[in-house]
What does this fold into?
Amino acid sequence: MAKEVLYSSTRGAKGQIKASEAILRGLATDGGLYVPDHIPQLEKSLRDISQMSYQEVAFEVMKLLLTDYTEEELKYCISHAYDSKFDTEEIAPMAEADGAYYLELYHGATIAFKDMALSILPYLMTTAAKKNNVKNEIVILTATSGDTGKAALAGFADVPGTKIIVFYPKHGVSPIQEQQMVTQKGDNTCVIGIEGNFDDAQTGVKKIFTDPELAKELDEKGFQFSSANSINIGRLVPQIVYYVFAYTRLLKEGRIADKETINVVVPTGNFGNILAAYYAKNMGVPIAKLICASNSNKVLFDFFQTGEYDRNRDFVLTASPSMDILISSNLERLIYHIAGDNADKDAEYMRQLTSEGKYEITDEMRSKLTDFFGGFATEEETFATIKNVFEKTGYLMDTHTAVASSVYSKYVKETGDKAVTVIASTASPFKFTRSVMNALGKGDDSKDDFALADELSAVSGVEIPEAVSSIRTAEIRHKTVVDKADMQKAVLDFLKK
It folds into this structure.
């Protein structure tokens, strides 16, 4: 029997709680993120796991970290999450192109990698509510840089006992991302644009979360907050699964030998997806390098180069908007771990980040980051990668995946490391149609994104995903836009309805 995994705050809020409680709360009362008290090892061999379906791999991983869920509860959550809403049988298939394996994480309902975790989070959360005798309605409060919002909305729409409020930067997402969100159905859904960037939205959400007076007021009205962002451990755990799955597929297909190490490249904004790969490595998956790919908002690249995290810089709007982030929330979990699971030290760094906009880790902590490699790609390099790989191999990728692909090419040139490599392909090219068409030299400013989607389909021979075709003529249901200072008022207005 696996040892129970308990969760505590990265900033030291007293006491340890069970996984289901951590999932319900989302964020700790002191603003910290929940982390496991130990990272368990996989119980079965990777060779044995290679014979399992995606759903079986998910159970094998998640039972080790979500130890207070029964086998029956977990299997119920998994079977309802990973079903026909994915358009491929394998859930996360891999494509080989230009010397790497692209792990396609975008075959779910909203054509982005967030579906991998947000398909299961509503089931984990409603199960957790029952387990903990929660009588309040759960209000999911989330900031999105483009993808989390729609995936969370799709997951929680009309789920009994929940409401969901999503904030997004009004001028910081792609037209198709925005259309996906503002056409969302469901009486319990609310989408609000803010005049500001993603960091403003994320900071506002964290502020609402940690306001004790507001929590008390809402509790009296029968509500309590939780989160669908990657700050919620219920988002992070399902993401570990696909790295275990990817390694064991390579093993099954004879592309790697037993215990052979691979590298993983992840286009990174909020640091959750690459942190999941770090946890997979620590659970026993032979990953050598975790290659962290940034766009022009290269705060993480600079951090890995210097040991200083400094968000005091211009915020750049790029063609890979889900990575347009200067405060990478999930990095806090890594800081906590490399500080020796020291909550006081982590809390001090986070105070510095809030007050001065930066902090610098010690040399001892830096020595624990040797598994990571930071790289970044400019807009020009990103676009060139889309064009070059497509012309060379016929493989089409979106802008975020192209950032990772470009960084991987630089990594190989710099290091000569030719190890088998998995690149996390995080969104369908049809989610960023205009940018992809521009990259291919076929852009047309006179056409809308849907007309361009038709052309992209014709050029690439790839069918337009249902997630795009279904919103083409859908009714716009969410029209609210507020100033970042009015986010709390907007939440209360929605909950009064």
